[in-house]
């Protein structure tokens, strides 16, 4: 399993007991969907290592307490602290009609209500305060904030996202 076949679930933030239990801070709006996992992948020295989950339960709103198979002592748990946790993309819950996961819209055509076709979505940067679409328009880069007000329709069959961007936003990237 490689990272491009997975999605980031969270980060191991602390130990819970001396018996090897860990707490994972989940990076999701719906942590309850991940309360009863069978397995996880831990990024250990740039390799995804599978671990089976013996038991788990949700603590507070987004902390998942887990007991992993073969992690039975405090030293074993120490070795997993501060590591990222992943799940296969197949574990993502289905989304509604106009909703999408960032990885699935790469390569989609971008069409703006006033400018027409503005290119192809190359990637989404979600590491900033505001997630951003990066769109390639004939070698020029157009950046549009990921904002529900700007997205009018997502056509998954045709692989198109329709935008209605504020006046001047796209122009500032196309000016010489």
Structural notes for this entry:
The protein has 176 residues and is mainly beta. The protein has 2 domains: 3-90, Elongation Factor Tu (Ef-tu), domain 3, CATH 2.40.30.60; 102-174, PRC-barrel domain (SH3 type barrels, Roll), CATH 2.30.30. Helix content is 6%, strand content 45%. The chain has 2 helices and 12 strands. The chain has helices at residues 74-80, 171-174; strands at 6-15, 22-26, 39-44, 47-59, 63-68, 84-88, 109-112, 116-125, 132-137, 140-145, 151-155, 160-163. The radius of gyration is 20 Å and the shape is elongated. The N and C termini lie far apart (44 Å).
Summed up, what is this model?
The protein has 176 residues and is mainly beta. Helix content is 6%, strand content 45%.
List the helices and strands and how they pair.
Blueprint: E1 6-15, E2 22-26, E3 39-44, E4 47-59, E5 63-68, H1 74-80, E6 84-88, E7 109-112, E8 116-125, E9 132-137, E10 140-145, E11 151-155, E12 160-163, H2 171-174
Parallel strand pairs: 7-12
Antiparallel strand pairs: 1-2, 1-6, 2-5, 3-4, 3-6, 4-5, 7-8, 8-9, 9-10, 11-12
Low-confidence stretches: none
What is the global morphology? elongated
| Average pLDDT taken over every residue | 92
As for the number of domains, it is: 2
The percent range for helix content is: under 10%
CATH class annotation of the largest domain: Mainly Beta
How many beta strands in the DSSP annotation?
12
Q: What Rg, in angstroms, do the CA atoms define?
A: 20 Å
> For the report, how would you describe the main beta sheet?
6 strands, antiparallel, barrel
Within the CATH hierarchy, at the fold level, what is the topology of the largest domain? Elongation Factor Tu (Ef-tu), domain 3
- Report the CATH superfamily of the largest domain: RimM
Termini separation comes to 44 Å
Work out the strand percent.
over 45%
